[in-house]
Design brief:
Elements (H helix, E strand, L loop, with lengths): L14 E4 L5 H12 L3 E6 L2 H13 L5 E5 L5 H15 L4 E4 L13 H28 L7 E5 L12 H21 L5 E7 L12 H11 L8 H12 L10 E4 L3 H5 L1
Parallel strand pairs: 1-2, 1-4, 2-3, 4-5, 5-6, 6-7
Length: 261
Amino acid sequence: MKPYQHLERSVAGKTVLITGAASGMGRATAHLFAREGAKVMATDLNGDGVEAVAEEIRAAGYDEVRDLQLDVADHEALKGAVAATVEAFGALDILINNAGFARLSHPSQDAYEDIWHDSVNVMLTAHQRLIRAALPYLMKTETGGRIVNIASTEGLGATPGNGPYVAAKHGVIGLTRAMATDLGRDGITCNAICPGPIETNINAEIPDEHKVIFAKRRVPIRRYGIPEEVAHITLSCCLPAASYLNGVAIPVDGGLTIKNA
């Protein structure tokens, strides 16, 4: 029998680029990776917001963090973000595509076309562009590059009035599977996280009493999740030890999707 093989469960010293890091799940992910010893490039369209997050992380005692204002809809800016990360830290080992938004619209409305365009551009096209820009560096990672795309339970089903978002998130899961098959031979894994009802800015306008009713009816754990719970699953996908996890879409939803299956 072969001896037990130790697999590393630490991202200490790894460099991670995170989009959409000014709030919610992106902010929690930046905090968590920094606390686990990673070097963090936190980016967001909200420059002041992501700068504040970096300041929070440094105030907590973790200095290996930089912030960058980034419009993921700008192809050249994505390339610049990769270059800035490598310039700051000398490497890029982990990429987390988290930036996104939700705008409701019915197909009969004129706004649907514009919302569709923006949704696909920000939450799907930008993902593949950033992955491709990061590839030369991810391929150099000794323990294997890691890509995590933040999808949604809306990528596994659909709710009314949310068509552009639903389509984009279904696309994210498809992109994840395609990248997993294309890049696996290079030692790079690509996985997707599918958050369910999580307390973020996207649902901040929903009254708390409505959230409680929804959670009790639809979620076996009977509550909304918090961003940190999603961040920990994202981290798990990025561990060197997660080297055989590839091409999956992981619901982080308190059991919502399985209850509705």
